[in-house]
Amino acid sequence: MPLPLAQVQELRDRLSDRFRPWSRSAQFWVRAVDIYGSYKVCQLRAGFIRDEDEREAMWEQQHEIGAQKMYSLCSELGGLFLKAAQILGKPDLAPMAWVKRLVTLCDKAPSTPIEVVREVVERQFCRSFDEIFDYFEVEPVGSASIAQVHRARLKSSKTDVAVKVQHPGAERLMMVDIRNMQAFALFLQKYDINFDMFSATKEMEKQICYEFDFVREARAMERIREFLRVTNKKPPVMVPRVIPGMISREVLVMEFIEGTPIMNLGNEMSKRGIDPGGKLAAMAKQKILTDLTLAYGQMILKDGFFHADPHPGNILICKNTEATLLDYGQVKEMPEDLRLAYANLVIAMADGDLSRTKEGLRELGLETSSIVDNELEELFELSLRMFDTRLPPGVTVLSPFAEDSSLTKVGVENFPEELFSVLRTIQLLRGLTVGMGLRFSCAQQWKPIAQEALLKAGRVKDVKSKRPRSFLRRLF
Length: 476
Hints:
476 residues; alpha+beta; four-stranded mixed sheet; globular
């Protein structure tokens, strides 16, 4: 006797759900091997070409091809690969062809249908949708890899709120993605990149698990909001206020803040008759960047608890060039010894103290290997690439994995997992710096904060500044 149509469809859905992780993994590896293989072939061909212009043209063509393939991988698979696009789509880290393609993926994840959104909200709050909201915009304001955000108004409120709703089933697929990424990281660090990438992916795995708990996110948001309030006469950045009683693991309601995404700042300036490349725009950008990095310096060095995801999609620019930080799913609390060790490294980088930089890296737990004669200089250069936003004059790309990187001369054999969030945060802040066309050293701005942190910890002798060495004067 044939099965009823409904049972047949249910069986198909179950089989599809069962094999989806395998299908997803196969798609990832086919595409990843294709991208990696095309670059290795280009590298081999480039070795036989003596003309520099011809070789550069070959690489430019390869970057265009690689960018399109990477865009397809990230946009079609979504999930964790959208987060990868956020990291790689930075003008200081990836080829410009990649940046132009990947930067368009911020908040471009497929959205969950409104019917499913209603079900999630009602299940989480045990109330009917219409009892909660006076109105609810069907189209999300933005949709990312883990959740989407809708503008709405509560029955009990006269102001608009932002409703963050988790995508059903996203957590399972994310775990599949991270396992594949970890395997690929192990391959790369064995054959191509002299850096402990596996530890970085392990920390990423922990952070992703945290992102699916909106109750934890709400607590983090309120903690950072209160810390910035009591630390400053006026907080350098705004943090949305959580709506009490409207928090669950899969739904989070907070105040809605009007603003312009930082990636659209240039277009917004043009609409208002301001030259994005003019002096007025430069002053506004400098203020925005100074406020953002000040907030991060205070969070990392004073409190040790910080927002760890400052990609452009999480930053709004509001009235009077005030910045708002969104999305507190990725936050990090640094152990006390690691926070003070990083404070020591910040002072060393700001002062250009090569010996102290080496001591600071060792104190942080980085294990390095080197056979070069100028080890101190290379270690200092490596620390700048990893932990500062400054760029040497005329340089717009300062990737830790570039061909001229100190990583080709100094290997990082062990990189503490706890430090990955700091590394990622600095890289994202540098991307903002380059994207705004500015040159800015967060280490120099953070030096007084680092000194204060060490002073409070009783390490006064460690905060004495030293004059920059001649090596730095040659570089900068």
